[in-house]
């Protein structure tokens, strides 16, 4: 089952500056097999098979807890699955841009 | 790694009445091993080991897609993990109620 | 426009014990006009007109920042609106429970 | 109170193809005063004063319900506020990229 997801990981108990931990999340994703990902300002798009995506997010929690001493983590995930057609991070963006262009040229 | 999570699953392409599908989610959770769960008005609290919790949510997607013909699903999950102390659905509620009682009795 | 929502507020920069702040959120909601709310283990259901619900959540942020010195806050909200029929925290729960009972009695 | 938020709006009861509605959301944001926004594959970053951001999201719901006959909408929002320093969509991205570059050059 293919997933296009978006997640936002918040480390707790490490103060208010989270940049260092967001960078570790990106590095953990880079080391995760079989997924695509793209960071934005409030989280990260992630795409792949269900198990690979969930394993990657779990790796972020495990790494922060055990190797970077983060005592508590709060993560929110949006998960999209579908069986009617294939989907990807790039296709979803392309379809909306195409729709916006066609609606502006027709008006 | 223990998780206290909360998830809300939205089936798409099946109209606006979702009660039937929320009931299937509850039945799928009931059949899932090693987790505790508690439905509320906008989702379901779920507690257990990371892999058991994620496997239960995956089972909800799989069951709705394959056995109930739901073409598309959008799920949001809040995931909490911590290594500083143990946590559970019940303890989290109890701690806040206790805090509210002590602050009202001291005022 | 009526809203049935669910929100989870996470204070940052105040350590890992959040019970005190969750209690303040509940007290702020109690003082908010025209809403109903019900805490669960991973957030709070909240119901009312859009503006009243959003004003209540804003009050939680404002109170924590200005009166309780919380430097940073991360909140997630699920918002449901519909024009096909009325909805409420209680009705949503009742409908699923009724569905679960009728499906178990018919099997 | 300044907000950096991220929201994902899901129209229900309109089938599984949501591109048209995502485009309407983008057009509604474009017409909303005093906010900045940036679409990604699973939602939209949005930045501005609390009231302006919430008003823009409300406009998306109102427009879809009343002018595009969407019967039901499910929206998830991540909201970040802070009083310790200023923040923006662009700064958050820049800080992480800078951290990633410095950590790769030091290794």
Topology:
The structure is a homotetramer of 107-residue chains.
Chain A: E1 2-12, H1 19-30, E2 36-40, E3 43-49, H2 50-67, E4 72-82, H3 89-105
Antiparallel strand pairs in A: 1-3, 1-4, 2-3
Helix pairs in contact in A: 1-2
Your description of this structure?
Four copies of one chain form a homotetramer. Chain A has 107 residues and is an alpha+beta fold. The first copy, chain A, has a single domain, classed as Alpha-Beta Plaits (2-Layer Sandwich). Chain A is built from three helices and four strands, in the order βαββαβα. The first copy, chain A, has helices at 19-30, 50-67, 89-105; strands spanning 2-12, 36-40, 43-49, 72-82. A four-stranded antiparallel beta sheet of chain A has the order 2-3-1-4, with helices on one face. In chain A, β2 (36-40) and β3 form a beta hairpin. In chain A, α1 packs across α2 (50-67). Chain A is elongated. Chain B binds chain C through residues 4-6, 8, 16, 19-20, 22-23, 26-27, 38-43, 45, 76, 78, 80, 82, 84, 89-90, 92-93, 95-96, 99-100, 103, and chain C through 4-6, 8, 16, 19-20, 22-23, 26-27, 38-43, 45, 76, 78, 80, 82, 84, 89-90, 92-93, 95-96, 99-100, 103. Chains A, B, C, D: InterPro entries: MTH1187/YkoF-like (IPR029756), Thiamine_BP (IPR002767), UPF0045_domain (IPR051614).
